[in-house]
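Q: Here's a chain of 147 amino acids. Please give me its 3D structure as tokens.
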Amino acid sequence: MKPILPLLALILLTGCASVPMADTSLDYEAKKFNPESGKANIYINRGGGVGTALTLQTIFDGRITGTLAPHTYQLLSVPAGEHVVSIGGENQNAAQSKFKAEMGKNYFFDVGFSVGWVSPRVHLDMVDEQTGRLELKDSKRAEASNY
């Protein structure tokens, strides 16, 4: 019976979640990777994989900025300085990353789930710009609160 539990959990997590999406023109503009004058771009991207029936809440500097479903991302235009990106969801653990943004630069974070013993584990990883741009190709822009 025990070997069946992880398989059952995986099956239950393979549904499909949805979130409010940004207009396609905003998705196109975001993928030009040009930060606003005096700001930095923060891309928070969620690929596919485990937990497709679940959404993840994004929090930037303690403020909720929105929710991510599989193959969606958010773009936040932020001032230079110290910041904290956090990610979590209902009944899941949370993860956060502290970093220092410089104006005129792009920063990329990869978020998602991995298989856990009882429930999925949330992960949040800063990735380099080349990797981040490549991962965004398959994602669509989700709505995000203005920072």
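Q: Can you summarize the key feature?
A: Residues 7-15 have pLDDT under 50 and may be disordered.
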